[in-house]
Every structure is written in C-alpha cells, then in structure tokens.
Design brief:
CATH topology of the largest domain in chain A: Beta-Lactamase
Number of domains of chain A: 3
Keywords (chains A, B): Repressor, Stress response, Transcription, Transcription regulation
Distance between the termini of chain A: 53 Å
CATH class of the largest domain in chain A: Alpha Beta
Oligomer: homodimer
Number of strands of chain A: 10
Largest interface: A-B, 34 and 34 residues
GO molecular function (chains A, B): DNA binding
CATH superfamily of the largest domain in chain A: GAF domain
Protein name (chains A, B): Heat-inducible transcription repressor HrcA
Helix content of chain A: 40-55%
Largest sheet of chain A: 5 strands, antiparallel
Strand order of the largest sheet of chain A: 7-3-10-9-8
InterPro entries (chains A, B): GAF-like_dom_sf, HrcA, HrcA_C, WH-like_DNA-bd_sf, WH_DNA-bd_sf, WHTH_transcript_rep_HrcA_IDD
Shape of chain A: elongated
Order of helices and strands of chain A: HHHEEHHHEEEEHHHEHHEEEH
Family (chains A, B): Belongs to the HrcA family.
Radius of gyration of chain A: 26 Å
Chain lengths: 344, 344
DNA sequence: TGTTAGCACTCGAACAATTCGAGTGCTAAA
DNA sequence: TTTAGCACTCGAATTGTTCGAGTGCTAACA
C-alpha cells in the first residue's frame, strides 16, 4: 500500500507531466509549493514508486513519467477535482437549447462541442437504430423492377433501401402489402421486425397477394440488416496537436483507425453500462491505440443507456477535465433526448 | 520558345523528380539513356530553363526541381503516354459491374477505387441533388406537432426532414395536402419545386385546406435548401505517405481542409465543364493547398456533366497515371449511370 | 558556333567530439 | 528519517569535419 506521501508525489508527477509533457525530475518537484521535502527525499520515494510500477524513466538519468499502471491509479483514486467555467457550461447548454429536429444533427453537434472544449478527437454514437419502433413503412415504385422501401421510426429517423420487385407483382399488390404492413406492424421495435414479419404478417399476405414471398424475403433481409448507424467524429486533426504524435509514423495507424470508423463504432457500441469508462494505452484492444486513452460515457433516456460519446487522446490526457466535460455533455444530452422522446 | 532539347531535358527532369522526389542534377541526367550529351551541356540548358522559370534550385548548389510553371507546361504538353494494366482496368470495371442499388454506395466505391489505384486522397461528388425530379412525397406524422417529410426522387434518392405542424391542422388535412402534391408535382425537377409549389399548388390547397400556408412555407423552405449533397472521401491518410508531408506542420492545414469537407465540396461543385482539369499549387484558391495539386474529372449522363471525381496529392504527383485512371473511372462511371438513368 | 572537359567553389547531410544541464543513486551527517 | 553533497549518466544542443553531389565558368575542341 502506498503512503500518503507517495500518493502526493505520484499525483504531482502525473499532474505535472500531463501539463508539460516533459519527464518530471526530483528537483522540479521539490520546488512545487505542495511539496515540502527535499529533492533527495523525493528521489527515494520515486525509486520506490518506480519499483512498484507506477512511474518509469525514459532513460537511465531522466526524470520520471507515469506508467499505464500509474495513470490507472491516478484515474481511479487521484483525480483532482475539476470545475467547468461558466462559459463552458453555457457553451454546452446552448447546444442543447435549440429545438431538436434531427437526431443526427444533434449528435454531430455534441461531437463538435466535445472536441472544441477538450482539443482532442471526439466521437458520438447515435441511439441504436434497433431500439426504435416502426412508425410507418412506405414503398415507392421507381420503375418496373425497382422500388424504394422506406421505414420511418418513432424517433423520426428515416431508413431507406432500394429493392427489386418481381415482375409478377403489380402496383396494386404492392400497395396492399404496404397497407397490411402498416396495420400489423405499427409500434413494433425494429429488432423484432423480422420475427413479426415472418409469423404474423406472412399468413395475411398469403391470403391476399400472389408471389408475396420473394418480396417479403427481400424486405426482411434488407430491413433486418439496417445500415450501421452513423458515428460522428469531430476534431480528427486535433490528434496532430499532441507532441507525442509529432512523428508521422506514430499518427498514421491512428488516423487509419479513425478513417475506418468501423472498429471505433464497434468499440463504442459495446459500451452499454452506464457512466464513464476510461481505457488507458494497452487496455485498448485495437492495435495502434497503445499510446492512446479512450474515455467513453453513455447517455440515456430514462434509465436505459442508448448510446455513447467519447474522447480519444494520448495517454497523457487531461483526464480530469475530459471526464468532467464528458459527464456534463452526456447528462445534458440525456436530458434533451428524454424530453424529446417523451414528446413523441 | 523552348528548343526540342530543352523540352526533352525539362521532361526528363520532371519525370525523374516525380519518381524520386529528389532534386535532379546534371550528372544524374546525363547518365540517362534518353540523353546523349554531357553534363556540362545540360548545365547550360538547365541554367536557361531556370531563367525562363520552368525549374528551380532548392539551394545554390543543388539539383533542379520543377517550378509550378514547369509542372503546368509538363501537364499541358509533355505528359508521357500511360496505359493502364489489364489488372487495373479489370479492377475498375468490377466496381461498376454490379447492379446499382444506391447511388451513394456507388460514389463511395468510386472514391475507394481511385485512392486504391493511385495511393492519393480521392474525392467523389454525387450527382447534384437538384437535377433530379420528384417521384413521390410523403408526410408521416410523428406526434401532434411534428412530422417527417419525405421526398423520393426519380433516381431513388430519399431526402427527409422533420417539420413542425401547426396544431390547427389534422391528419386528414395532411393527407389531402400530400395527395395534392403528388398529383400536381410528379416529375417536377427539384430545382423548380419551390416555384411550382407557390404558383400551381397554392391555389388548389387554398380551396381544400385550412391553414395550409404555414405548413406550405415550412415545406418550401426545407425542401428548397436540401442538405448539401455528400462528398465521399477515400484514402485521407494517404496524404501522410508523401515525403513532402512528412512534417506535421505541413499536413495539418491540409487535413483541416479535408476534415471540413465544405470547401472541397464547393470547389468540386464549381467544376462543370466536361473533361479533366488540373490545378497546380497556387492555382488552387484554398489556403493550405499551395503544395498540392487537384485533378478533377466530371462524369456525365448523356451529354450533361452531373458531378465530379477528383484526386488530391502533392504537386509532385504522378500526373500521367492519375489522369489516365481518372479518365477511365469517370467514363466507366458515366456509362454505368447512363444505363441506370435510362432504366428509371 | 555549339559542345565538352576541367576546375574551383558551394552547400547540405552525416558523423564525431564537446559541452551543458537536468537528472540519478549513494553515502554520510544532522 | 531526512537531507546535503558528490560522482556519475545521458540526452540535447553546439561545433567542427568530411564527403559527395551539385553548380558556374573558362578554355579548348570539333
């Protein structure tokens, strides 16, 4: 177990390193006003902290740098309290003050404010598409063979897909089919859509429409695999501001991950326990993120976490500020969404 | 006017520099098999070329590097012929071989193949939204105050927007209104939609529906300013592979432009004369692109250019190959789209 | 008159040597 | 237990040196 003095030293080392990016030496440390003992004492303590794995040297006679274990301890136990300025709070609030029309715009704006307030790269994940319920389905024929199938959810989200129509089916049939869908499937969560279509609707269709099955199958297929929901990024280029990424070789894998979007998407989608979570360095599973920390927070409507927002930065990240900002945005976002869903 | 020998030397210098990225000296040049004279002669010629502004020195005793004027001349008059390999042609063809369902996927794939074949950053702009015609309009009420307005175009593109509904209007009115729209506005180009709505439809609406005007205005407004069409990027991180951008300071403004998307969008939208266009270095208006060249090509349906595809790279770009690839992709894309539009 | 060989000169890149400062660990005294 | 002092280490910055690839210029040559 660490002594109080060791904790103090660890905290000051990490705080200083986060601020400066430079290895912290015993003399620098002893000059801090929070620290009352000599550099020699500090050296002894630092030697112990190093042996315990909380800090490291970059080379034999260098100052100390936090290890991942050190950051982990810091994040779990030593975070200095942080308050947002009035201006920050105001900025965040203004994002959510306007009337919401489109969920996607809102998520984009959330990402923007996050990267603006932190100077890191931010990511926002929209509410899982499958959570929402069917409000209306519509099929608009384009020509003899193709039509656009449109699904409107109760959240106002519109999903559409071009589908092929068998030649044996005419416009009348199509209309009948859509009517049956809308009668029977209103309010069904999209996630259950496939099942309901196969069980409840198939029978009715069979009675009214010839050749219903090939279209039905196409529809079921396309609707069951909705486009991956969108991930919204902001401040991608902020990554380049970090001195630890001043070397192109080190940014490239990172930018590749970010450009891909898919991996990040999956990573965030997994995040569904409430609250803030911090992944430091190698705790991240994705290769290329060894020098990064990812901080995620979920937002919810009522009690149910719907999606996540996140900040990606170097392991030497301003954890305290980021977590505070993230919490604030998440809770404002949750509030805005809750209000919005209630009005639906 | 340049002599034949000067042209030859200029071409060889640029070819070599594009390949190697290193300043080209007289001795290196004299060893090339295309060149039959001594390094001293070449030095004299190079001095002339430099005086004329086609090449530059990086420092007083260095080899020569093409100037923007040099690149311009090269692109206009000296491009070495370039043929695509069978494999390349095959790759391009395979992108357009599949049945097209969604325009956006197609554009995304076009961008991908471009960046894959060139190792530069590529950009694809979808057909201008306003070109297409109204196929069907639909309004789906979400609750008392809001509804989703959906517009389907003849190209299968779906545009949607959440709109507010005045409380005095009920579901029946809404339906009537939509019916009137669909009767009267079918086939109207979206660009004319606003006008037609105000002239042709307003009268009819007035006779049938109370309070039609506030909704109508909202609709007109939202539909008249459709979301900016999407720009598709691919290979953003390829920028980092270029040695001229190995310095973070030089990439940052560039990545910022790319991240913004808006400026690039405008730039490409302006491009509506047929064929390939090359902008070299300072010919680009955007700040941050001084070290870049942008090569754009338009694709068309029938005779009308609809959109553009482009490659963004360093001024030291493989112009010949890029232009060839771009031409090929543009023409295959045009063919695919033409076929597709005809089937609509 | 155009071409080329030769030569002195320039400059950047690469490398080694040097210095400087911030850091360390250890020891002995307070 | 703390701290002053000291020898030692190492990276970063600075300086000097060498090397090679380049240039421009001049004079001789075809």
């Amino acid at each position: 177990m660490l002594t109080d003095r060791q904790l103090l030293i660890l905290q000051v080392i990490i705080d200083d390193f986060i601020r400066s990016g430079q290895p912290v030496g015993s003399r620098t440390l002893s000059k801090k006003h929070q620290i009352a003992f000599s550099s020699a004492t500090i050296r002894n303590e630092m030697a112990d902290l190093e042996e315990l794995g909380y800090i490291e040297k970059t080379h034999i006679s260098s100052g100390r740098v936090p290890s991942e274990k050190g950051y982990r301890y810091y994040v779990d136990h030593l975070l200095p309290p942080q308050r947002l300025t009035r201006a920050d709070i105001q900025k965040i609030r203004s994002v959510f003050a306007e009337r919401i029309y489109e969920l996607e715009k809102l998520m984009q704006k959330s990402a923007q404010i996050l990267s603006e307030l932190t100077n890191y790269t931010s990511i926002a994940l929209g509410p899982a598409f499958k959570e929402s319920k069917l409000k209306r389905m519509q099929i608009v024929p384009l020509n003899e063979q193709t039509a656009v199938a449109i699904v409107v959810t109760d959240t106002g989200h519109v999903e559409n897909r071009v589908v092929t129509i068998p030649s044996s089916m005419d416009a009348g049939d199509l209309e009948k089919m859509v009517n049956i869908f809308n009668e029977r499937l209103n309010g069904v969560p999209l996630i259950d859509l496939k099942e309901k279509m196969e069980t409840e609707v198939a029978d009715v269709l069979r009675r009214h429409i010839r050749n219903y099955d090939s279209v039905l199958n196409t529809l079921i297929e396309t609707l069951d695999a909705p486009e991956e929901e969108k991930v919204f990024f902001a401040g991608k280029a902020n990554m380049l501001n970090q001195p630890e990424f001043s070397d192109i070789q080190k940014v490239r894998p990172l930018l590749n991950i970010i450009e891909q979007e898919k991996d990040i998407y999956r990573l965030l989608r997994k995040q569904n326990q409430k609250g803030v979570r911090v992944s430091i360095g190698h705790e991240n599973e994705l290769r290329g993120m060894e020098n990064c920390s990812l901080i995620t927070a979920t937002y919810s409507v009522g009690d149910e976490p719907l999606g996540a927002i996140a900040i990606l930065g170097p392991t030497r990240m301003e954890y305290s500020r980021v977590i505070t900002v993230l919490n604030r945005v998440a809770s404002d976002l949750s509030a805005a969404l809750t209000k919005w869903y209630q009005s639906q």
